[in-house]
Amino acid sequence: MAEVVFDHVTRIYPGNDKPSVDDLNLDIKDGEFLVLVGPSGCGKSTTLRMLAGLEEVNKGRILIGGKDVTTMQPKDRDIAMVFQNYALYPHMTVADNMGFALKIAGTPKDEIRKRVEKAAEILDLTEYLDRKPKALSGGQRQRVAMGRAIVREPKVFLMDEPLSNLDAKLRVQTRTQIAALQRQLGVTTLYVTHDQTEALTMGDRIAVIKLGILQQVGAPTELYDRPANVFVAGFIGSPSMNINTHPVINGQAKIGEDTIDLPREAVAKLTAEDNGQIIVGFRPEDADLAVADDPNAFSLKVVNVEDLGSDGYIYGNIITDGSAAEASTMMSDQNKLTTVRVNPRALPKIGDTVKIKIDPTKMHLFAPSTELRLN
Amino acid sequence: MAAGPFLLRCVRFAWEAAARPTSVGELAPVPVTLEAMELTDLPQMDPRVLKATSVKADPTAPATAEPQALKITAASSNPKMFTLPWEKPLATWPDELLANLPRGISRHVVRFVHVGDSVYAMKEITRNVAEREYELLRRLEKLELPTVEPIAVVTGRHTREGEPLEAILVTRHLKFSLPYRALFARNLRPDTAERLIDALAVLMVRLHLAGFYWGDVSLSNVLFLRDADAFSAFLVDAETGDLHVSLSEGQREYDIDLARTNIIGELMDLSSGALLPSEVDEVEVGNRLVERYHSLWSALTDVDSFSPDEMWKIEKRVNRLNELGFDVDELEMNTTPDGNRVLVRPRVVDAGYASRKLLRLTGLDVQENQAKRLLNDLDAYRASTWRQGEDLEIVATDWMREVFEPTVRMIPAEYRSQIEPAQFFHEVLTHRWFLAEQAGHDVPMVEAVESYIASVLPKYKLDASVMAAINADADSGVIDDERTFDTNTYGNGVFDADGRPAHLRADDDDDYNPDDDPDAAVWSH
């Protein structure tokens, strides 16, 4: 059993006022592939390095398999940092390239052979165990390097942006391979990335972190379907969610000249600090074109359209009346344009004004004061 | 002695007070560190580090951030840089541009390229990694640490057909340096491995004192320069590194542990290739690194405790550090509250004690042990010419003109790119000593030089087949070059029901023939 537990873990760098990781509570279940994702400087690498023993923990504890490792040296933690540019040794066979670290550690020969053969089978390298790296293709060489980490059979794999030094093609292939390998091996894995696509495609669960504070942990679909706050809503998903702040009038969101219905329970949760406003988010695929007199839709001035064959996208500006109260605040990263996925056979033209209706069951509502989810 | 604690900081104990520090290592008791490469707004960081470069690697930048047109950010204004075939994959650059020098093992395509009068090392890697490494090397360079010199990052490369190519990191080839594999390709002394390890331990300690966490220490990521009877090590690969204000014990220990594993692996590999003298025990050599590192770290950072009437021990400590090649730039002395003990530890130490002294006297910029040897010869010259009373600076000028320069002018032209003048001088002195011992009397310098050139110097030449073998080895670990694998057999990431890559059934490469391999392009150069 190798469950990993971060128990109220805090890391403050001397000279800094704010913690880089603040009171982190996170459990990685035995055998789980957990992806820690967040923007640059959010504390995700610091978190991984604390687990590796490279960073000191100022407060709290870290447990691996029930054992407190908070002050333990890296080499005593039984963890493997994967993909640190493993070199391949030209005169050694594939088997020796994979198993030499076990030899150094004094592992008996037959045990080394057993583990190497097992890893080779998983990596489809069995046929090549007696070859030298020169007789392998690039992808096979890459897998020999993976084998070096696998044969150690550590309690935990740590991967810090392991794909960043691969070119685009190899990155996509390796991404799939790592995820499949991890499932076969069943070794608890903490994987750090800034790339939400990697997170969504690879993790059993994703932990989103921002400015040292854990925002939400959950399965990829959970985070996608029910983001806990505005940050997660904007960070997870590509193209990202449309997020705007609107005034609430008579229980409805006022969008320009139009109004759209809001669920009563969500509106009831707004407080005085929210100043009569609400944050409305919807994903590009959760809205559609509506008829001109639809009472529950808003107007969008189309500035760009894309026809991808299978999908069409329209990009536009929400039409407001120009008053300060109605100036929408765009919180996602799409150049302030609202994105809607539509039927590519019925694309409007650039310059058109169209009506957009959001699927009420897929609407994401947040309180402006706390940025927390309301529905 | 006054009662109660006091603190005294002595600035520069060693006598050459005017010299600039070559490395700064604040030995703060509390590890201070920061997220990788986010160095701005950090008052603790050395200002030289903060202003090192305009390149800011952004790992979160999307692929679309790649410049559409060729972009060269260079620390050198060599106009020939623009005339290179950037539109071609590095592995296909024409032979006439390449310098045939031995390369180390790398996962990426690396070539040495003639650019005007210089030789640059080019490494093809992703844009973000290239920018990050360039940025780090610039910062290490500003801290005057022993690393290769970054020259440029080249991004926005495209083929003539408009296909994007990976970025290239350009560094200056460190003249006279060799990868460890080239050193083992020659008939060398059995203690070569140990001498390389000693140099690596010094490099690691210097980098750690400056707050550099390496993340991938190995002999492959280092270049070696001969330094009298020892070697000096230079960092060449900073891909996995991070610069911090200071390192935690965990970071240092991780580097040491990984270094040990990698070194043993590298030596086992040499042993598999019958390139390692049989008496060398790989594990013992790996353990030597750990031991050497700790002993040097402790000499540089430990707190000494002694009674107030033993102040001469401070001088002893400083002398010991000088012998190890370090200056004490700042020393901290505290008394215990009862006033009975004095606690002393160096706060800032600089490497290059002897080399700075020699530089000041002669203008020669050489490695530390070479400098010691040259300074010794200078002392001997001064004694033999009865000039002990004269200023050392004046004697040094004459020694340069009468002894050093005439000797190194005798280096045959064909060896001028193979051996450093100071190393030549050192080896001639050693050779002269042996000749004198054999003959039973002193041997004139000219005679010693001629004999050395005839009998010893030829070992410096790497023959063409050895060079080809080294470079073939270097390329056999390349993983990310288009020509190193056939995309048709590599597949598209589809996995079968067992979770195996569907395209990688065991029979795929059964009839593998290296001669038909597209990879051949990579290792045939």
From TrEMBL, chain A:
**Keywords on record:** ATP-binding, Hydrolase, Nucleotide-binding, Transport
User: What is the official name of this protein in its record?
Assistant: Sugars ABC transporter ATP-binding protein
Matching InterPro entries: AAA+_ATPase, ABC_transporter-like_ATP-bd, ABC_transporter-like_CS, ABC_transpr_MalK-like, ABC_transpr_MalK/UgpC-like, Mo/tungstate-bd_C_term_dom, NA-bd_OB-fold, OB_MalK-like
Residue ranges of every copy of the ABC transporter domain listed in the record: 4-236
Question: Per the record, GO CC terms?
Answer: ATP-binding cassette (ABC) transporter complex, substrate-binding subunit-containing
Highest taxon above the source species: Bacteria
Listed GO biological process terms: carbohydrate transport
E.C. number, please? 3.6.3.20
Identify the PROSITE patterns for this entry.
ABC_TRANSPORTER_1, ABC_TRANSPORTER_2
Q: Which GO terms label this protein's molecular function in UniProt?
A: ABC-type transporter activity; ATP binding; ATP hydrolysis activity
Pfam families referenced in this protein's UniProt entry, alphabetically: ABC_tran, OB_MalK
TrEMBL record, chain B:
**Where are the compositionally biased (Acidic residues) regions?**
507-519
Q: Where is this region: Disordered?
A: 498-525
User: What InterPro entries does the record point to?
Assistant: DUF4032, Kinase-like_dom_sf
Q: Which residues form the DUF4032 domain?
A: 295-457
Query: How is this protein named in the record?
Result: DUF4032 domain-containing protein
Q: Which organism is it from?
A: Bifidobacterium pullorum subsp. gallinarum
What's the source species' lineage?
Bacteria, Bacillati, Actinomycetota, Actinomycetes, Bifidobacteriales
